[in-house]
């Protein structure tokens, strides 16, 4: 028979803590809330309710409804329910205050029946939607009945269960006897109910209702041992469910895969935590963690000093150790939920470090041989627990004991492949960044793939180092343990991997604690390494480590002098070795590995430093003066790229600091800019001293320098602008101007270098202002001159034997073409150029053209602008400016002429300068510019090779001249018309050019290929002004007459048909006849008709005569007709005596064209006939007279009259 004592004891257990004021206040608040709450049954639900006061559980849940909270506070479980006299249970009416006492066994029997029915319904699950709805509805009804009964039991115990009354005679009423037995009956029925239901993990997922009673009524049981047994069984069941879920969890997914399958199980765990820990506070009973630990040890049969709990069966698990870590990590956050089911991150959390320490020892036990993939997961869990629980130094001790013995391990997971190489650091910055991740908040679930177990250990260590243990910094307690593991022998045993892990540890320590002490100890430990054992790759790693510590110094704004000098001295020695090592490829590669590590490290320091005020100049020592000359190709490219970064960084920081000083900074750190400025001067001095001499020496190298040389030179120029005082003495007193002369305006520097260099500087407003302030007005003109040269020399590096190509990008190279295009765009933004284009009405779209075409457009604009000027002063100034733009233009193209190639270079040369001669002819006609013109003619048109007529010119040269000669001829013609002082010489010069090239481009016969492409023909047929055309035409006819139409006796000149065909084509194209044509050409053509019998010559000559006669009809009465008559008169006088028949035949042809002309010549013909007869002394020549009469028969009345006269003379 149960007594009342146990009941009282249980109430005392659960009520002990409720007498304190916090719980009393909570109890009163809850009681007040009840007044506004509607009646409802608490139940497990998978639904969340994030909108109802921020709760994570639904309002019907045991947490959300406050059901457990009321029980723990000894309040009525449901004050608004069961107020009526009767209550409906399982479909029948019962007396509310007596039903449980009188019919306890019967009611529990009905409950078991309903549970049995519910289990059967679950097994009847159907895929038919209609049937499934019906089954679900029925199951909900049964569930509701069971919940209602269990809820009634709780309310009944709280309200109506009274201690038994003992009468004087010891006799009790039958009801009182039943009432006294109720506690024992309840215990028996609950036990029977649990046996009936079985283990929670064996039930279908939907059936978890019967066990709820254990959780919610345990405080009223009369058997404490039975309650604890039920709790233990329930935890065991929940762990079994978690094991079933863990079988599908990969180590990499451990932290993202929870241990519960639904929200109901999660709530059950939280209820257990709050219930067990509440009892633990009120009495000396096991807390939640203790019961979980015991359960885990027993079901996995782990040996322990604690006694085994009977009734536990061993559960199969693929990895008990990993499961224990997993379940522990997912249970710890459940402590954050308060009794209302709300998440409260500030809520005090109970730790379970003792058990975790045991797990950690098993994980790091060498005999256990835990795989890296599992160890990562274990340490992920440990790191997660560190974020929930208080400080624990023991776990660091356990982990350090393990990792200090395994520093040489790679800690890789083979099946991760390349992903697992993410922890390999190629630079000091990446090394530091990798370690810094350990020192900040991380996404712990992602660490499995992104970090190895050693880095996760460092994360744990870093997290613990940030906290204080009773006012003592953890480092004070851990310092000796960590340092003691490193001694001379251990350091010498470290492999390259071990050395990397060594650096990672000390980097992490330097970040979170005493930086200088850590670095000092690190350097001392590195001194234990013997030089002979340090390979090139290990030394590179050591250097990267040094720079990683330098970066920490920089980030903490600490002076780097000591550490920088140590590493820079080592760099100096290796640079010296690199300089003298030329032929040993392996040694050179090993040294470059080190040197490139240093360069990367210095660059990272400069990029990281905020003010460059921490003695960064110490890293830029004279080792670079030995390194630069020894570099080749990619090596030099890397150094120059580094130098550009340093220059840009120095200028940027210096500008920011200077701006702050100008604004009058009064902040507490106002002295910092002043101090920084001194360091900036030191950095600038080191750059000029150790880098610039090499740049200067390379600007005119025999081979094309790297484009980065130009970029770097531009950086130095801007540095000279910002900090002029530190430039080298040979650049003073105006270092910016000296730099421009060296790299931008020197004609001997490679054009690729110049174009890239100037493109960086042309639009720099500060640079323009600097030149203006020093009164240097030629800045823009000299820059334009350099552009001229860069365009003209764009083919300079092409082999002279290369075939001509149509694609300029293939020939020159896409990069240089793009560079020239950009330079052209910038040139056209210069104020002088813009002004010229504006005056010449040339649009800004010009610069978008190909650089060659843009240059021609600029030349045209210069000539047009000059033509538009009015005053002599303006014109004189424009001539001077143009000459300044051009410079020694012939010097630019001399390499092409000397090498006689490449073809593209020669074509470009002759075309551009030909455009200059044509479109700037008014300027070249002036006395200031004529010397340039004479040099152009001498060098390009009349060089020594051209003067040797019997010597063949190279095809490429001849082709270039042929295409561009019309430009020169037209320009020279204009100059001949304009020149006041050198007119005769210029005419002679023009004649010489025509004489030398007329024959070179004249085909052997009119039908030969290319016969119609003679450059003179192009020049004469172009639309140029009349005086120019006339001068060119006159000079051309004069040259042809004197050199190509002269007979040797009766022998015709060579290529006569071609010469005549040229003359005929000029007449056809111009559609006009000039006096010079009649004077200089017609006599020779008539002579050809008389003396040459070749049909082709006769045909062409006849066509020429026809064009000239028709061009100046005698009937017009003009000067042309008079001159034409004079030429024919002379022709008749010269040839009638000997070639009378041919003369008369020619005149017959002319008579058809212009009868008047021939009629006017009758007296001359008649007189010539008589003179011929007289000279022969044979009397009248009947044959001649008959021929003459045939001619006269074509001349109408005048002819008949003359015939009559002749006949009359014959009769006499």
TrEMBL record:
Any GO CC annotation of this UniProt entry: nuclear replication fork
Subcellular location as annotated: Chromosome; Nucleus
Gene Ontology biological process terms from the UniProt entry: chromatin organization; double-strand break repair via homologous recombination; replication fork processing
The keyword Cell wall biogenesis/degradation is assigned to this record: no
Keywords: Chromatin regulator, Chromosome, DNA damage, DNA repair, Nucleus
Domain MMS22-like C-terminal: 818-1195
Matches recorded under InterPro entries: MMS22-like (IPR042320), MMS22L_C (IPR029424), MMS22L_N (IPR029425)
Domain called Protein MMS22-like N-terminal: residue spans: 205-701
Lipid metabolism in keyword set: no
Function: Component of the MMS22L-TONSL complex, a complex that promotes homologous recombination-mediated repair of double-strand breaks (DSBs) at stalled or collapsed replication forks. The MMS22L-TONSL complex is required to maintain genome integrity during DNA replication. It mediates the assembly of RAD51 filaments on single-stranded DNA (ssDNA): the MMS22L-TONSL complex is recruited to DSBs following histone replacement by histone chaperones and eviction of the replication protein A complex (RPA/RP-A) from DSBs.
Similarity comment: Belongs to the MMS22 family. MMS22L subfamily.
Name this protein carries in UniProt: Protein MMS22-like
């Amino acid at each position: 028979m149960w007594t009342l004592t146990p009941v009282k004891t249980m109430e005392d257990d659960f009520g002990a803590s409720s007498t304190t004021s916090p719980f009393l206040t909570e109890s009163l608040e809850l009681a007040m809330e009840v007044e506004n709450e509607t009646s409802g049954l608490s139940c497990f639900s998978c639904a969340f309710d994030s909108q109802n006061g921020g709760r994570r559980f639904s309002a019907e849940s045991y947490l959300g409804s406050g059901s457990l909270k009321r029980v723990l506070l000894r309040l009525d479980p449901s004050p608004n329910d069961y107020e009526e006299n009767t209550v409906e249970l399982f479909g029948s009416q019962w007396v509310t205050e007596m039903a449980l006492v009188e019919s306890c066994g019967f009611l529990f029997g009905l409950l078991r029946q309903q549970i049995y029915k519910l289990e059967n319904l679950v097994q009847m699950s159907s895929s038919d939607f209609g049937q499934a709805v019906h089954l679900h509805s029925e199951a909900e009804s049964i569930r509701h009945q069971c919940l209602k009964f269990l809820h009634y039991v709780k309310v009944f115990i709280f309200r109506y269960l009274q201690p038994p009354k003992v009468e004087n005679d010891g006799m009790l009423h039958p009801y009182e006897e039943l009432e006294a037995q109720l506690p024992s009956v309840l215990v028996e029925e609950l036990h029977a109910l649990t046996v009936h239901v079985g283990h929670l993990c064996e039930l279908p997922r939907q059936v978890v209702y019967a066990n709820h009673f254990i959780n919610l009524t345990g405080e009223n049981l009369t058997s404490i041992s039975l309650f604890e047994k039920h709790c233990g069984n329930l935890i065991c069941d929940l762990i079994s469910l978690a094991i079933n879920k863990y079988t599908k969890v990969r180590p990499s997914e451990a932290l993202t895969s929870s241990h519960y399958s639904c929200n109901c199980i999660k709530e059950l765990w939280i209820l257990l935590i709050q219930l067990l820990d509440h009892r633990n506070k009120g009495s000396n009973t096991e807390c939640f963690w203790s019961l979980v630990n015991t359960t885990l040890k027993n079901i996995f049969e782990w040996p322990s000093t604690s006694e085994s709990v009977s009734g536990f069966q061993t559960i199969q698990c693929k990895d008990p150790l990993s499961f224990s870590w997993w379940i522990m990590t997912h249970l710890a956050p459940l402590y954050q939920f308060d009794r209302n089911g709300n998440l409260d991150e500030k809520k005090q959390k109970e730790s379970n470090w003792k058990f975790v320490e045991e797990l950690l020892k098993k994980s790091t036990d060498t005999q256990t041989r835990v795989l890296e993939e599992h160890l990562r997961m274990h340490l992920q869990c440990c790191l997660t627990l560190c974020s929930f629980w208080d400080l624990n130094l023991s776990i660091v001790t356990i982990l350090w004991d393990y990792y200090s013995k395994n520093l040489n391990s790679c800690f890789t997971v083979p099946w991760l492949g390349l992903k697992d190489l993410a922890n390999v650091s190629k630079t000091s910055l990446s090394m530091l960044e990798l370690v810094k991740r350990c020192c900040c908040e991380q996404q712990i679930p992602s660490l499995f793939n992104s970090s190895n177990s050693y880095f996760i250990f460092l994360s744990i260590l870093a997290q613990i180092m940030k906290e204080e243990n009773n006012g003592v910094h953890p480092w004070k307690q851990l310092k000796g343990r960590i340092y003691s593991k490193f001694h001379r022998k251990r350091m010498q045993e470290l492999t390259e991997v071990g050395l990397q892990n060594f650096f990672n540890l000390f980097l992490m320590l330097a970040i979170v604690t005493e930086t200088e002490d850590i670095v000092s100890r690190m350097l001392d430990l590195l001194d234990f390494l013997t030089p002979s054992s340090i390979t090139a790759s290990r030394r590179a790693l050591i250097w990267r480590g040094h720079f990683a510590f330098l970066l920490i110094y920089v980030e903490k704004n600490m002076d780097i002098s000591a550490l920088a000098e140590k590493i820079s001295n080592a760099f100096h020695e290796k640079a010296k070795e690199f300089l003298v090592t030329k032929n040993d490829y392996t040694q050179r590669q090993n040294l470059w590995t080190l040197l490139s590590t240093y360069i990367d490290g210095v660059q990272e320091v400069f990029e990281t430093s905020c003010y460059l005020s921490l003695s960064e100049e110490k890293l830029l020592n004279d080792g670079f003066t030995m390194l630069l000359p020894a570099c080749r190709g990619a090596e030099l490219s890397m150094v120059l790229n580094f130098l550009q970064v340093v220059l840009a960084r120095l200028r940027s920081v210096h500008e920011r600091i200077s701006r702050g000083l100008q604004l009058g900074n009064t902040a507490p750190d106002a002295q910092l800019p002043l101090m920084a400025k001194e360091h900036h001067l030191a950095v600038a001095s080191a750059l000029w001293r150790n880098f610039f001499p090499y740049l200067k020496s390379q600007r005119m190298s025999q081979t094309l320098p790297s484009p980065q040389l130009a970029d770097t030179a531009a950086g130095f120029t801007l540095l000279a602008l910002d900090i002029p005082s530190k430039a080298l003495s040979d650049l003073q007193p105006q270092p910016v101007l000296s730099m421009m002369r060296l790299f931008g305006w020197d004609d001997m520097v490679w054009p690729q270098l110049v174009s890239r260099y100037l493109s960086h500087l042309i639009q720099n407003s500060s640079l323009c202002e600097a030149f203006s302030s020093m009164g240097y007005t030629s800045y823009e003109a000299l820059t334009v001159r350099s552009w001229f040269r860069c365009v003209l020399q764009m083919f300079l590096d092409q082999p002279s034997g290369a075939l001509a190509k149509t694609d300029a990008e293939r020939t020159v190279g896409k990069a240089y073409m793009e560079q020239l295009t950009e330079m052209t765009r910038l040139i056209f933004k210069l104020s002088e150029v813009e002004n010229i284009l504006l005056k010449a009405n040339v649009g800004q779209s010009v610069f978008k053209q190909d650089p060659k075409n843009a240059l021609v457009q600029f030349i045209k604009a210069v000539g047009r602008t000059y033509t538009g000027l009015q005053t002599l002063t303006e014109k004189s100034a424009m001539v001077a400016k143009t000459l300044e733009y051009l410079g020694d233009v012939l010097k630019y193209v001399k390499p092409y002429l000397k090498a006689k190639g490449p073809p593209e270079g020669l074509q470009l040369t002759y075309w551009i300068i030909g455009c200059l001669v044509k479109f700037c002819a008014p300027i070249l006609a002036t006395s200031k510019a004529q010397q340039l013109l004479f040099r152009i003619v001498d060098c390009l048109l009349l060089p020594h090779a051209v003067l040797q007529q019997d010597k063949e010119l190279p095809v490429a040269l001849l082709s270039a001249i042929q295409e561009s000669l019309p430009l020169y001829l037209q320009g020279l013609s204009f100059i001949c018309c304009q020149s006041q002082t050198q007119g005769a010489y210029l005419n002679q010069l023009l004649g010489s050019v025509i004489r030398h090239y007329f024959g070179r481009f004249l085909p052997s016969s009119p039908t030969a290929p290319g016969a119609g492409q003679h450059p003179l023909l192009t020049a004469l047929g172009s639309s140029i002004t009349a005086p120019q055309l006339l001068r060119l035409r006159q000079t051309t006819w004069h040259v042809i007459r004197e050199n190509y139409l002269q007979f040797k006796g009766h022998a015709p000149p060579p290529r006569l048909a071609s010469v005549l065909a040229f003359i005929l084509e000029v007449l056809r194209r111009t559609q006009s006849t000039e006096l010079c044509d009649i004077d200089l050409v017609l006599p020779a053509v008539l002579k050809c008709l008389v003396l040459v019998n070749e049909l082709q010559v006769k045909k062409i000559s006849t066509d020429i005569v026809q064009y000239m006669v028709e061009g100046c009809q005698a009937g017009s009465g003009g000067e042309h007709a008079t001159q034409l008559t004079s030429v024919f008169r002379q022709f008749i006088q010269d040839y009638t005596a000997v070639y009378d028949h041919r003369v008369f035949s020619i005149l017959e042809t002319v008579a058809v064209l212009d009868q008047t002309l021939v009629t006017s010549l009758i007296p001359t013909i008649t007189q010539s006939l008589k003179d011929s007869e007289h000279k022969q002394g044979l009397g009248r020549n009947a044959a001649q007279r008959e021929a003459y009469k045939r001619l006269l028969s074509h001349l109408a009345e005048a002819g008949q009259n003359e015939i009559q006269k002749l006949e009359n003379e014959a009769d006499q």
